[in-house]
Amino acid sequence: MTNHSTASSRNNIVTNDYDTVANPNRCEAIRNEHVSSQNNIVVNETHTVTSQNGCMTIRNEYVSSQNDTVANEIH
To answer: Is the full-model pTM beyond 0.90?
Structure first.
């Protein structure tokens, strides 16, 4: 279990970029939570590669902004 939580800012650029490779026969859970901003740019990207016989759970929660640009991408 990998937890990335509470990335926030005001008038700044926040970039959360998590690249995860899951090994075979392994369960991995990734949670990115509470990415918020005001008057700025927020980029939240999760890149995931899962090998055979592995289960992957990805959760992106609470991506919010006001008067800014928000990009939320899952590859």
So the answer is: no
